[in-house]
What does this fold into?
Amino acid sequence: MNDPVIFERHFSDKLGISLEIPQTWQKIEKQYLDEQTEGYFYPAKLVHNPQIFIKKIVIPDAEEHDYNFAELADELLQLPLQKLQPEQFEIITQTQTKVDNYPARLDIFVFQSPDVELPITQYQVCWQNHQTVYGLIAMVESTEELQYLPIFAAVAGSIHCEQ
It folds into this structure.
């Protein structure tokens, strides 16, 4: 995949966003995802193909505040830790950022699950558009992270909230 990456804009009525995905990536069929999630993968012929998932969560009025996105980021960060020993998990970066001018948090970390023979690098960014919180989760084998982290960042940077 050393050729230049060509992106095309995808519109998701389900999520209320548009984003640019590399042309060579394929959409994950909806029977494998819940109603508020979309996903894409690159058929890279790796043991674990690079993947991107975007999830939408609508926050009830009584629970809405300015930092729902940070709570989601913390929850997503805790998921792999439930099955791992501390030495199997390393945070590479945590950064406050913006997605389409909305407050966001970017986390990049590496983990090695006992049921996976290779370390996985996860790129996740969570952001909030009023009562809607989104999480973009992208994963790739850590040996391929230098090639795919810029793609994940380009996808995240291309997101436009339609609402």
